[in-house]
Design brief:
This is MaoC family dehydratase N-terminal domain-containing protein. The protein has a single domain, classed as Roll (Thiol Ester Dehydrase, Chain A), CATH 3.10.129.10. The protein is about 15% helix and about 35% strand. A 5-stranded antiparallel β-sheet has the order 1-3-4-5-2.
């Protein structure tokens, strides 16, 4: 089933999320961060941070906290069993720290088709802001596989 290019420019509702210290510490340990600024508040403050800084790629976890995250694909009629994660890129505009309320919303920026429609690529940008100022942009690509396409 081809993905309608008309979805380009559509966006999700904004939602608010907060990165709690305990969650940041867990993520830092799970991803092998060795720098104590990610786990020790005193070390973070000594390094000039307001609180524990968000480790690289952690904002993807907050993006997944969207209370309506499954609605996007469901509204397009896409079966989640045909979806693959095609890539992720992070662009940081400012440091993000623990306990800061962040606002996130996602927009579709492109739709591409490859292999004669066997693979559809949906490119999305998630915008993250703090007090209205942008702090990060997460760009992700969702690959939708057509199970009926010849292999």
């Amino acid at each position: 089933m081809p993905v309608d290019r008309g979805i380009i420019g559509t966006r999700t509702d904004a939602f608010t999320a907060v990165a709690e210290r305990s969650r940041l510490r867990f993520f830092a340990r799970a991803t092998g961060q060795q720098d104590p600024v990610y786990t020790d508040l005193a070390a973070a403050r000594a390094a000039g941070h307001r609180d524990l800084p968000v480790p690289p790629t952690f904002l993807f976890c907050l993006e997944m906290d969207n209370p309506d995250r499954g609605r996007f694909l469901a509204d397009l009629g896409i079966d989640v069993r045909t979806v693959l994660h095609g890539g992720q890129r992070f662009e940081y505009h400012d440091t993000v720290c623990a306990n800061e309320p962040l606002t996130l919303w996602t927009e579709v920026t492109d739709v591409l088709s490859k292999k004669g429609g066997a693979l559809e690529f949906i490119v999305r940008a998630t915008h993250v802001s703090r007090d209205g100022a942008p702090v990060a942009t997460l760009t992700s690509t969702i690959v939708v596989r057509d199970p009926k396409a010849a292999r």
